[in-house]
Design a protein that fits this description.
- It contains no helices and four strands.
- With 71 residues, the protein is mainly β.
- It has a four-stranded antiparallel beta sheet, with no helix packed on it.
- β3 and β4 form a beta hairpin.
Amino acid sequence: VDGDVVLTGLVNAKFKQPVMAGEQIWATAEVLRHLGPRWVVLVVSTVRDLPVFRAKMVVVAVDGEKGALLR
């Protein structure tokens, strides 16, 4: 998703495991669908290859100066 301003809309997020201080978290994001000015994105965070967080969200790119939706 490319834009100066990106807004997050609907989010379905789940924390799978606790993370301790000092642990390294890796996050990956995958665009599942592109629907006009909206993208559906899946984010998965892992610690030592174990999933600790998962979120599916709808994001919208906005032109920062005009406030118009980007396609």
